[in-house]
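Annex B. Sample input.
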Amino acid sequence: MKPQERLKHAIEAFEKIALTDWNLLPAESVQQGGQSGVCVVEDTKGNRGVFRCLLPSPTEEEVERFKRELKTLKSISHPNIIKLLHSSEEAPYWYISLLGGNFKTYWDAFTKNNSDDSALICSTALSIIRSIASGLAECHTKSLVHRDIKPNNIVMLASSTGEMFPAIIDFGVRWHPDDERVTDVNGVGNARYAPDVMRNRLEEYAPWVDVFELVQVFMWMVSEMDGKHYWNRPIHWKFLRLPNATPPQFALSLKAAGAATSIEQYSPRDGRELLAFLDSIFVMEAPANDLNVVPNTSAIAEGKARGKAEKILREVTDLEEIEASKQMANIVYQRIRPLFTPLTEIPDVSTITDIALDAAAKDGVVTKSATIFEIACGEGPTKFYIRWNVEIHVASRWPDGGKQEDLKKTNIFCFYIQKYGNLPNGNYKFPHDTLIFTIESDGSLMERREGSLIPIKTISTSNIGTRIQTMISDPEAWKVITTI
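Annex B, continued. Sample output.
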């Protein structure tokens, strides 16, 4: 249905209801909703509102969504959630909410009028985002996930003193764990601001979805390009383009916010955590028309914020590199892991550690090196061990963020298979042995020298199996632990 047809339907529906204390303002225009008709109305006290009703012949899904939106607006009272003014409890369902100004129009005018004051633009953007995060925090405490945070679902309201502040609208696709699913197989949300994973979630949504979308809006507000220049996709923090006049600390913190919220396991989990997170990485002067930003200009706070932002960027870069490299490493893992299975059937051999590469990779983010598989050889108190470790060579762990020249084309997962003895003090010589290999760009395996990691020769899975068998079958190793 075209916008003019939607407006006509809304006007007809409003006139049919014949509310005595509300009058139609047909000359006022307002953005039409996706599943409803909308028109502007005014009560006898001069308060303007938006009348919203279902379109003709609505589906069961559309009726259910409208009822859920109405229920949500009734259950939440927060300055940054649009206020419900009047509603119908029975069919035909409709409601009137407070009339707000178009957010995009407001922000375009604000940035144009203050184009010579980048600090003011950044500060005000942060203030608006914090206010919206506060509204989301209220939703999240009630287990509600909006799922469609974008500029079109934000309006600007005026306080009693004339100050402008934002409010969230359109809860038509909001999610609650107690509701039955009414989403079609294509999922919900918007391609520009929503994370890709959201398109595949039909049963359960985490508040992180709202956090991700809100930070995407934040980046859109201060970026150099309009959203259409990003191919209608979420902005990746590495490719965020900001005006040259953007304060350096703000630019660093915004990239850190984009990076942190891009990975669900790393991101603030909900609106409340997002507020605390923003306060920890953004330190700047509050503008004259501040929207609840707490001024903090101390050098100590600025240094801490810069340090946290840089740490976030470093760790998220590591996580992205690990994720990109893990598929090939998993292929090699699946080839090598069966070589260890026969070892556990040898008498006096017991398994200590046996975890999948995914789990080891998560450990490796923190510890750099993680054990995938380990066995103990020997029946007495003194044993020797065969251990398979993975060491993750992410860029942040190399001098100046770069690998040595002969490792630049290798996968970041480096594998170590070691034979070592845990011997008491004394004159015991245990025959230690270490096999180190990396995955080359063509998928081959390269044996490398311990310590320097200088390449030695290309090896096969069969070569690795033979080396492992040699380690555990070494008579000298068994003799040493038996002698002690």
